[in-house]
Specification:
Its EC number is 2.7.7.7. The protein has 897 residues and is α/β, with parallel strands linked by helices. The strands form nine sheets. Strands 3-2-1-4-5-6 form a six-stranded mixed beta sheet. Strands 10-13-12-11-14-15 form a six-stranded mixed beta sheet, with helices on both faces. The chain has a four-stranded antiparallel beta sheet with strand order 28-29-25-30. Strand 28 and strand 29 form a beta hairpin.
Amino acid sequence: MATNRPTPDKDRLLLLDGHSLAYRAFFALPLENFSTTTGQPTNAVYGFTSMLINVLRDEQPTHLGVCFDRSEPTFRHEAYVEYKAGRQKTPDDFRSQVSLIFEVLDALRIPRLSKAGFEADDLIATLATQAGELGMETLIVTGDRDAYQLVTDGVTVLYPRKGVSDLVRTTPAVVEEKYGVPPTRYRELAALVGETSDNLPGVPGVGPKTAAKWLNQHDGLDGLVAHVDEIKGKAGDSLREHLAQVLRNHQINKLDCEVELELTPDRLTIGQWDREEIHSLFDTLQFRVLRERLYATLSTVEPEADEGFEIELATPGPGEVAEWLERHARGAGRIGVAVSGTWGRGTGELTGLALAGLAGPAAYLDPAELIEEDERALAGWLADAGQPKAMHDAKGPMLAFAARGLTLAGVTSDTALAAYLALPGQRSFDLADLVLRYLHRELREETGTGGQLTLDGSGEEEIAHDLAVRARAVAELADSLDKDLERRGAVRLLHEVELPLVGVLADMERTGIAVDNDHFAALSSSLGGQVKAVEELAFSAVGHDFNLGSPKQIQQVLFDELGLPKTKRTKTGYTTDSEALTNLLVSDGHPVLEHLLRWREVAKLKSIVDSLIPMADDAGRIHTTFNQLVAATGRLSSTDPNLQTIPIRTAEGRQIRAGFVVGEGFECLLTADYSQIELRIMADLSGDEALIEAFTSGADFHTITASRVFDVPPEQVDGELRNRIKAMNYGLAYGLSAFGLSQQLRIPPDEARQLMEEYFEQFGGIRDYLRDVVAKARQDGYTETILGRRRYLPDLTSDNRQRREMAERMALNAPIQGSAADIIKVASLNVDRSLRERGLTSRMLLQVHDELVFEVAEGELDALRELVSEQMCGAYELRAPLVVSMGTGRTLQDAGH
């Protein structure tokens, strides 16, 4: 176990009150910020696990147990039926996380205890008492102050002061200083003062100071009872009136120190935990940072990593690079390549390079010290497609190579991409983590004396060794991942789609897209004026100024001042998100609601425009970064800037698109996107002949499907009917439920359910497909796209209904969305190859969802149209054939269609 403190000189027992701490975590962390893509809330699990890691790191217990309450009544309920009666109902979002906390503890082999008829406090009291008899030191982590009665010189309570991260060490001196009585009297003080959370009312008008004074004057509660008639004033009258209540409190808040338990303190040992089990669980919970903190804190009984890497490092001098490459790289199998440097926004800088095979010496090259002869030798080797290479997350280094005039070819494995295909639910693909997971090694060098050299990147020699270790690790990891991908059926997907796409994306990043910053500056000014104007309208509607960006002030205005119906309650009050305000606008119609929604829309657009202006380089082009490793469905995302979030449904949003323009020396922009690709894939996968016929008829697809469902001629399908079926068509492709459809169409759930039934009467193949795809995924544990991209869904067999139902919806849409991602990637590769084969100078600039954007060279428009149509429509043969829509113009907005 990693440590910041010396190892305890005697056994140290750490006891945690599981429910108390989990409940605190639930309310300390915003629910909206902690949930999985399946919709499972995780704030309580995250907070509890984070606190657990911290306390294990800081306290280094030799023994450990986590105690939980049970749902059955306890002896306290039998003594007082109103015990804890005032507590609010446990939130469903919390209840669904308790079993997940159990899974975390079980995976870590940490004992957890509970017993019917008793609370966690009683189990803790029993174990602490037994531990004292065994000579063990005890630490209790709990948010329940009843535990203060257990505090002694050998028992310390760690009480959460704020959330679950700030723990206060509560010793006998701390209890006495805070409450004026020793821990042995705390229970008596609590009986007098009462405990609101347990519904144990105290003596009215009597606070901790008065209670402490009485107890100290009369040597405890027994003495106070014996002299109760001597207590003067209103407080004395109140005490005498409520004395029976005090005695009842004293009986109820006594902790039972003699609960019969199967485990005794000496048996609460931390077992050997399994890294793969933790990986699987944390993948499901989508915890990345916690995973890294956990590995830095805990160790298994046996070492997790067998060893580091033995490296013989060469540093070829001037004129020696060609010889080293010939002797140790050419013909030596796949070579791991690791680089240091910076990259992003279409360019990069190379500061270090290491090469290592599975055996033999590794080499480190400092690019700043390479002479021309060495640079030529390195360039030839890097560009040799016949020399297999392995890298980790190669696209960034490609930009750095390209900025130096170097071409990288022959990459037969990108270990980050390979891990992404093997573990698509994971959030991070850190090399050190993957090396430990697959190779059971640490990303470090073994020294010649049998010790370990930890590499922290400080100093030139450390950088050289660090990169050499990474290069060797990548070479070995690539082999292990190859075997894993073979087992998962993803080898072809890596080599024919994802790896070739790296170079295409790198080229698009380097090229970028031209922008008109004067247009953006004018648009920013215009939007700024609109923001101010909408603010004034909002102020006028309520009669005073307020901060439209402050949820707290908005709550005060809407619910306190205007008395509008309250929305869903959150930790910080009542939600004021856009959906809630839109619903309020429909039901109430107060003008300030319209102004608030409009202000948010315009302010968001201005923020987007203002962020774009400084991103243009000296040539007036913006370079986004495409991400292959983010979406589990296989879809690309983009960052810095995110070009997939630019709105197109509003006039102002379209004005942002108008700021992206054709570059100097080119004729125009061409956009090409797939028409209804998800629906065509759904038709193909389901084999529903009626749906396929609707696509192949040549008529409007939504009109034809509406005509069949509502049994009216196509010409009688009005806008409302078409919109209903359009929502149904797309909704089914995204796993939409009847409730979701009712919310989308603003119709009762029963009506939505009836609409779905009518739809399935006409398109029974869709119903059968949706049913079968979930059943198969539950059997196999994963879904597959048309190219074999898998999405692993362990929650399909979860006992938690919410997690299971969300996983079922993901099983419905993953094959469709993932297949669409596969097809646009294949299309991008085919278009790129055809552009080079035909010698066109037009170039591909962007991929945004199902759309490709091109910069058209002078005189090449017709040829490019033909090429793009041919390659995109031919990317995959569907029974509902792929159709591509195109548009051209001087701006991205003009090129829309």
